[in-house]
Design goal:
With about 250 residues, this protein is mainly α. The protein has one domain. It is about 75% helix and about 0% strand. It has nine helices and two strands.
Length: about 250
């Protein structure tokens, strides 16, 4: 199980309840109804739905898929859990844009279907089970996909803003040392982003509500990752240069 599951569930319930409560209160003011009653009713109902959805996804569906699903997303999440336990994992396990786009879609679809089916059946009886399954799965999948696309947009913009010219290693010959050296620009794909560390749509909603803080955190992480990549490039260039001399 992901160690951040309790935080994800708590944030998901709080954010969902707050957004739905504010929306209901504004609707009440617009329609001339009591905003307090609508706010309380919306907060309670959305809180129950959010608690069911996030608890199911983080404690049941997510761990089960990580253990059994052979897809790349779940392989990445398994590697992350192993690294969290302090075990060194060799190989390339960097998420791509496509991985971010597909992040937690299956988790959210299954959890949304379960939540929608249970709540609709509780409200309307057995006939509401099928419609609740379909509606819950569709809504949660679309919402998760929208959040994933928003994350890709933000990361691509931030990575482009951080892409600065990188001086290539200068040759040892005196004639070449005075020659202007070519410059390479870091591409967005060069920035390693741990998409599955904070891939839940509740975290994305929280980042939208506090964009300034989230941007600063992303910039700090990306700068640190950029510096690590530059150091690694210098090491590889030195190794290649030594190999040519030998």
């Amino acid at each position: 199980m992901d160690p951040s599951a309790p935080q994800t569930v708590t944030k998901g319930v709080l954010i969902t309840s707050s957004v739905c409560g504010v929306a209901a209160a504004l609707y009440g003011l617009f329609k001339g109804q009591s905003p307090g009653k609508l706010l309380l009713f919306s907060v309670v109902n959305s809180g129950i739905a959010a608690a069911t959805f996030f608890s199911t996804r983080e404690y049941v569906v997510g761990p089960a898929l990580v253990l059994t699903h052979p897809g790349r997303e779940y392989q990445l999440r398994r590697h992350k859990l192993v690294q969290t336990a302090g075990v060194v994992v060799h190989g390339e396990h960097t998420p791509t844009w496509d991985d971010i786009r597909k992040s937690r879609l299956i988790d959210s679809a299954v959890s949304g279907a379960f939540t929608g089916g249970i709540l609709n059946a509780w409200k309307r009886g057995r006939p509401g089970l099928i419609s609740g399954l379909g509606t819950g799965a569709l809504m949660c999948t679309l919402l998760q996909w929208t959040i994933n696309e928003f994350r890709i947009f933000r990361l691509s913009r931030l990575s482009q803003s951080l892409a600065a010219p990188i001086e290539t290693a200068a040759p040892n010959t005196e004639s070449d040392s005075t020659r202007p050296q070519p410059r390479a620009r870091a591409s967005p794909s060069a920035f390693k982003y741990t998409a599955f560390e904070t891939a839940s749509w509740s975290d994305s909603i929280l980042s939208m509500l506090s964009r300034r803080i989230s941007d600063e955190e992303y910039l700090r992480r990306l700068k640190a990752q950029r510096d690590a990549h530059l150091r690694r490039i210098e090491e590889l260039e030195k190794e290649l240069d030594q190999g040519r001399r030998m």
